[in-house]
Amino acid sequence: MKHIIFTLLVLTAFYSCSQPAPVNQNPNITANNLVEEIAKQVSHYNYEPIYQVDFEFGHCYIELYINDILAYKNYGEGGSSSFTINPYLLNFSNQTIKLRMYAREEFGEFLNNSAVKLGIGSYDNQNKFSIEKQQSNLFIYQTPEDENGFFKYAGKEYFEQTVTFTLPEVPYKIEGWKDSQDLRNFDKKLLEQKVLQAYQMIQKSFKERDLDGIAQFSFNKMKDQAIAQYFDEEEVQEGWEELISIAGADNLEFYPLENYELVFYGEGRLVGLKSKKKDKGFRGSSALLCKFKREGKWIEAKLDYLLHIPKGKTEFEIY
User: Fold this and answer.
1) What is the pLDDT of residues 132-158, one digit of tens each?
2) pLDDT beyond 60 at 21
3) From CA 40, how far away is CA 175, in angstroms rounded?
4) How many CB atoms are closer than 10 A to CB 149?
5) Alpha-carbon gap, residue 291 to 79, rounded angstroms
6) What pLDDT band is residue 34 in, cutting at 50, 70 and 90?
7) Euclidean distance between CA atoms 44 and 81, whole angstroms
């Protein structure tokens, strides 16, 4: 079953003197019409490619970015996995994938056999088991090796590389952040204040179970993700119900908003706050973190809301 790529979490027990700014986007969206309005904007095609990164890594921690958006992170033992990249494809002629590679803490540096290998393939959303519609090795990448076949940067603590790839077909168009303003030259204190106010408003909406408010600031991102993954109405409903379940959860608690850093994504067009903690569950995550009980078990969630100023607008919006 497909799931909307929408990590879940909220803010903190931190309160500033100012009150949270009201939601000022998608005023016509409500909890009752969000699913229907998103489903209306999803188009279907004779061929619906789902692009997927398959990878393996060892003796390192990794972060993988698609078009400068964090799409996957793993600070564990290594192994193999895969993830879908459609929601990060904004009809660029060239796409980018960036690898950030960190030495494992117990080693302190990369080993000779530290490595990352990945490939991009695709399948047809309408028939993922059709061999004729599957394409593998659209792009292949491997971390650099020396003349002996060892990792070229063994002994270092950090490695980063960005490479470009192209895809044969991206049939959909999503608004995303491609044409938003570059925020990197904005005053950093102002940006931090804007993000804090937005995160505080998001927290307030979840705590008060304001489903209309949550629908309004979640709509843009959910819409783009649904378009990019060809979701039907049932699949959109599934993603929306996940957010509803957090707002309605018992014992909903928010972690303190502290020890964070201001971070930019999408070549400076998106901004947010990321936790600087290295504890399991916090490292590399949005600063919006909460936990709640479901069926008697505590569950942690991360709400990856970011801010941007869309083309033709002057005010920040949530994405």
Assistant:
1) 778 888 999 999 999 999 999 999 999
2) no
3) 15
4) 8
5) 28
6) very high
7) 28
